[in-house]
Design brief:
Elements lengths: L1 H22 L1 H14 L3 E7 L1 E23 L5 E6 L6 E2 L4 E5 L2 H26 L3 H33 L5 H30 L3 H26 L2 E3 L4 E4 L8 E2 L6 E15 L1 H4 L7 E6 L2 E13 L10 E8 L10 E18 L4 E3 L2 E8 L2 E13 L2 E6 L6 E5 L10 E3 L1
Parallel strand pairs: 1-19
Antiparallel strand pairs: 1-18, 2-9, 2-13, 3-5, 3-8, 4-7, 5-6, 7-9, 9-12, 10-11, 10-13, 11-12, 13-17, 14-15, 15-16, 16-17
Helix pairs in contact: 1-2, 3-5, 3-6, 4-5, 5-6
Length: 416
């Protein structure tokens, strides 16, 4: 009986083991693993989480203008005798542009030189004294100087009447007035010299003669300066524009002869809406384009942000300096400035289409060990298809960029 019982127990044990192997938990585990291995995975595409800078920019219309625009204004009136440049020429600062008739001014310089020489001679003679013969000569010089002065005074009176009748110009009257003053100065100097040699020069007389020398020298320098103005020169270096001078035409201080523009550096003028103006400050670098120069970018620097809005547009004027070494930009051209109004530096950046939303909660699916895993994230600046991620991800993670709408958390995925 004991042998029979033992055989029965062995049979029962073998059957139990067989049940476990064929129908128990071990088979269930094996079945689940087989099913999982046979379950299809979803093909997805991914992007790697990287760091970068994200900038939000707005396009603003601008107008280009030269950095400097200086009119060419003659300082004396007269007839143009020679023209040395033409519209569109590039000129140097100080280069002669045209010449004005200088005949009468040369005569004034000659008179001033004579008066100065006489004043110097009178002072020198007074210091050393004079002989009887020299006194006669001085008397004759006084008579001649008096006659010259009387003639100049009479001519001035006649010209003053003509000027009052608007028959001559102020330039002509001033020229006669200068001749009268020079004649008066010469007469005074001659009389002083004569008196000095007749009575003997005192220290006071010597001082007066010294003052006359200084006065005559100043008159000479003024006459020479007026003569130099007959050569009209460029006030700045640049390109000559709106030049309307011809030989034989009249030039006058009241009529600008042209304009010189310094186009080596340009200014871009923009009107910025109030929603963006506080994001701008002097020194900011700006990318610009010109409609007339397609495919070429220019770099500018904000030089001024006006704190007062334009009364018509209610927008704020902004000035941008632009280098123009290539001379491609011309005054009056229209263009576009791309202003950075918001910026995220050294942030994790993703394509905006990878981000999903559960209410207000943003999330993405990342691939971990062949599965799609949901990650809640916090987003920052978003612009032109990219979004900054401030929390929830790490650099180098793989985020599903295609198929993210079909996957579920924990689903097997195949990266392609």
């Amino acid at each position: 009986m004991r042998k029979v019982f033992l055989v029965i127990m062995i049979i029962i044990a073998v059957m139990g083991i067989g049940f476990l192997l064929t129908r128990g938990p071990a088979r269930e585990v094996a079945t689940m693993n087989n099913q999982e291995a046979l379950a299809p995975s979803l093909a997805v595409e991914v992007v790697e989480v990287t760091r970068g800078d994200l900038r939000e920019t707005v396009a603003i219309n601008v107008t280009f203008a030269p950095e400097s625009t200086v009119p060419v204004i003659p300082k004396v009136s007269g007839t143009v005798t020679e023209v040395l440049v033409a519209t569109g020429d590039r000129v140097r600062k100080g280069q002669t542009l045209f010449c004005i008739d200088d005949a009468h001014l040369r005569l004034q310089v000659a008179q001033a030189e004579a008066a100065y020489e006489m004043a110097c001679a009178n002072l020198a003679q007074a210091r050393k004294g004079a002989s009887a013969e020299e006194i006669k000569q001085l008397e004759s010089a006084v008579a001649q100087a008096r006659a010259s002065y009387e003639n100049a005074a009479a001519e001035y009176e006649r010209m003053a009447e003509l000027f009052a009748q608007e028959m001559i110009s102020r330039q002509q009257l001033d020229s006669i007035a200068l001749q009268k003053e020079l004649a008066a100065s010469s007469l005074t100097a001659a009389e002083a010299r004569l008196a000095a040699v007749q009575k003997g020069a005192t220290q006071e007389q010597l001082d007066a003669l010294q003052a006359q020398v200084k006065q005559a020298k100043s008159a000479l320098e003024l006459a020479r300066l007026q003569l130099s103005y007959t050569r009209v020169t460029a006030p700045i270096a640049g390109v000559l524009a709106q030049f309307s001078v011809e030989v034989g035409s009249m030039a006058a201080p009241s009529a600008p002869a042209g304009v010189i523009i310094d186009d080596r550096n340009m200014k871009a003028h923009a009107l910025v809406p109030e929603s963006y103006v506080n994001a701008l400050k002097p020194g900011d670098q700006i990318l610009l384009e010109a409609k007339a120069v397609p495919g070429t970018n220019f770099t500018g620097t904000i030089t001024a942000v006006t704190p007062l809005a334009d009364q018509t547009t209610r927008q704020f004027p902004v000035e941008i300096a632009v280098a123009n070494a290539s001379s491609l930009l011309k005054a009056g051209m229209m263009g576009t400035a791309y202003l950075t109004v918001n910026e995220a530096r050294n942030q994790l950046v993703l394509p905006v289409e990878t981000v999903l939303y559960d209410g207000d909660q943003a999330y993405v699916y990342v691939v971990e060990d062949g599965r799609a895993v949901r990650r809640n994230i916090t987003t920052g600046l978003s612009f032109e298809g990219s979004v900054a991620v401030t929390a929830g991800l790490e650099e180098g993670m793989l985020v599903i960029s295609r198929g993210q709408h079909q996957v579920k958390n924990g689903m097997l995925v195949e990266v392609r």
